[in-house]
Amino acid sequence: MYLYGKIVQVKSKDTSASSAKDPVAVPQGAEHAEHRLPQPIVSNDAEGVGSDAPKPIREDLKTEVLAKDFRTLAKASGRLILIIAAAAIAGYLLKFLWTGLLPVILAILVTTVLYPVTAWMRTKLHFPGALAAATTLLGFFAIVTGIFAAMAPTVKSQSQDLIQQAQGGIDELIKLGKKLPVDIDETKVQQLIDDVTNAAKGQASNIATGVMSGFSTVSSIVVTVVIMLFLTFFFIKEGEKFLPWMRKYTGFPAGWHMTELCNRIWKTLSGYIQAQATVALVDAVLIGLGLMVLQVPLAFVIGVVTFFASFIPLVGAITAGALAVIVALVSHGLTTALLALLVVVAVQQIEGNVLQPILQSKAMGLHAAVILLSVTVGSALAGIVGAFLAVPVAATIGVIFRYQALVTSIRAGEVDPNEAEIVTGAPKPKRKARLQKQKEDAEAHIDASGNSLELDAARSVEKLDPDSPRAKVRELYNMIAPRPSA
What we know:
There is one protein chain. The protein is mainly α. It has helices at residues 17-20, 30-36, 61-123, 129-179, 186-202, 204-211, 218-238, 242-250, 252-293, 299-309, 315-332, 334-359, 368-411, 429-444, 453-459, 469-480, and strands at 2-3, 6-7, 43-44, 50-51. Among the domains are: 99-195 and 223-250, no CATH class; 252-391; 430-480, no CATH class. The strands form 2 sheets. Strands 1-2 form a two-stranded antiparallel ribbon. A two-stranded antiparallel sheet has the order 3-4.
């Protein structure tokens, strides 16, 4: 038979022995054509006899790739479904645990503000722990109670005048509308005013319910506040004992992971609450003083409302500003309302362009869209309480994700475990700056061999005490990092 120009002579039974040894006949020029032509698609049996049957075609690689992609997608979808189901179950159980969980969350947030005061009393004034905690808590309670007690007479004395001024302002608007070159039906305008007034009266109970959503009854409010105060007392008195107690029962890897994560969460929450309190105080003082200069009623009350509303980012400032403008409008007319609006806008510009970049640039690490979405979801789930807690909860979730990303990068070998940031046992800002200056001075005097006693001393802050919490976290980072191959 002929295969790509080669003539294979098959030996027959009646040929001589000499003819069996004859070479295979090759046409002229075939020895060069063998290099030019493609190799035959044949398979050989055990005797080496060729066959012109083509080899079976291998499975398409694209099919294998698509099948692998679908298997990966199916696994990821299954895991996503499990995560969503777990989140749904956790949300369902949260309804039953909310009454007990709410005072704990509020106590933690209050502790972030009061703990530095307690620590200062212990170190500077040498107060015992219980006395420092009790003094701080009583002072906080006295300040909050005094603010609301000072608001009550102002609201009582000026609310009636404000209602009368509002009615007078509406009458002035009606008179102004008559002077316009537009035919306005006074009866319809009065009917609209009556409808709005009746609707406001009818929704008063709903508004109160919305403000207090998250608390079921007045008794639950009292219970929540009392539990929160007791928990706050114990947190500021013995809060530093929690992490060692937790490590006692969780062991080395998990315990120190939780220690570093809790310290990161604490740093974020305390930074956010303290920065937000400073911003809220500045907003309240400036807006309150501006309204007092304009002689707007309830200026002090509006200032207090502005302070508490500022703890709800984005939404709270707008609400407090709108309240100030409305009160100015119904009390002194359009000109005063525009001036009040100018004051509010100026204060918000100072907050957004000066205070927030300085005080809150690294406090949360959340995008404005995430903050707005979290406030919206929190207010829908738990009203004012949910809106207040939305940003701290979102910031906590962000800290957890960032720490998981750091640990993953260390395990993958993308981050040097000796260069990764550690929050646990971090030195105070002044000490940190002093150590950094010492390190820079030592590096400037390194000798030609690269050795420097000053540099080793500057870097020995973690080597001095191998049992320190900071050294333990560094050891944990090195333990989870991949080992170099031999």
